[in-house]
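Morning F.,

Quick status update on the modeling queue. The single chain you submitted on Monday has been processed. Sequence for confirmation:
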Amino acid sequence: MKMSIPITATLLLALVLVSAASMAEEKYDGVYGGGSNKFSVATGSPGELGLLEALAKAFDTKMNTTLLWKKAGSGESLKALKEKTVDMIMVHAPSAEKKAVEEGWAVKRILIGSNEFFIVGPPEDPAKISEAKSASDAFIRIANAKAKFFSRGDNSGTHKKEIDVWQKANITPSGDWYIVTNDFMTATLKRANDEKGYFMTDSSTWVAEKKNMPNLKILFKGDKFLINTYHTLSQPEGATPGALWAIKFIDFVASDEGQKIIQDYGKDRYGEGLYNDATYAKQYDD
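Structure tokens below.
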């Protein structure tokens, strides 16, 4: 009987530790690589569309790493970095990125690539945005027609850019026609498809998902204001346990090998790349 007490206590402790570990893993939306050097990344579409996994696996073969992905839009990613709950982020919110660097809680702001925004909608185009001369003109037409428009409303980079376009149009959108989903890119795109409304989607998600969106087509694109540049940001070295590996990963992503992965990603599956590399993106960087 005396032996059962320490054994039971040990088992209970083991169960607690396993439970705690499981809870920690549940915070992440993807775990890539099997190495002992762990670091965490918050980002949206690069994780959702698989680019982050491709980069992580190539990096793991060199550095014996495990990348932990947290699915988050740019606003939420920046918040996570500031609160030190992730080691690095990949985002598209230039003004907020620069402020983070100026305030000293983020480093390694490196341009890694780009995509762009398309305004998609039902083929019949009730707001006639296919005739628009600019993104703001397209939004004015949607508002005047009170045509159904879907907004992520989640402080993501996409949402920030959408708000910028509304501001350029001198419109504060409101009413039954303006539908806020508080959801991610693909989920909001699906709602726009199902309910036959307009949505401003990034080109990467559109290339990956257009076959699943029979009720939508690209109705406006080409405004330089809709070019979407991606940058990395990381914790300063030593600020978090994985900061050093995050910094090394950023260097890899910016290297010729990492840029080649970005440039080619999606071509084998979709017939075209989902992202442009940093060389292309530089012409639109600010």
